[in-house]
Amino acid sequence: MYYLAVRDVKNAATTLKEERTCRNCGRDDEVIKKGIRYNKSGPMQMYYCKRCRKKFAARTGFGGMKKRAEAIVAALDLYFRGLSLSLVAQHLKASYKVEVSHKTVHNWIKKYVGLINEFVKSVNLDSARWHVDDSVVKVKGDHIRIWTLLDSETRFILAVHISKSRGAEEALKLLKKRFGSFKKT
Question: What end-to-end distance do the CA atoms of the chain give, in Å?
Fold first, then answer.
């Protein structure tokens, strides 16, 4: 589930819609773009408020970070795909020319997992379509089935059920875990 949320954050970081409300007067109808400031975290769009005559940078979720947003999001993505912290740091150095320690990657994960949790809680999971997937895993010689119910639009996992058999009864148990009781027809 985190992988899918990180993917959405990654897409948002590359096409970031920045807040254009003046921090001083709170108006957004008289704010215009006024140049670009370059810093360690990359270029930042600057804005100018015609009403109060103040210049400011747009706020993003990556404000105050020393490294580029793309590198931070890539680190989160790689970590949730199963790479170790050291391998993530090596990848950032090779691909993004961003030199960080594995501890820095760990700190990024601690910081942004909370933000991703808030994002996941705010996502509407009331779509009309779901997907059910079942996978077979062999455990100590026994075949175990893992049932997964996914939201069609967000691809978030809604429910998981583990069974030894495959059939309508097991699929119904999966649906009951997410939606409560169903009547048999």
Answer: 33
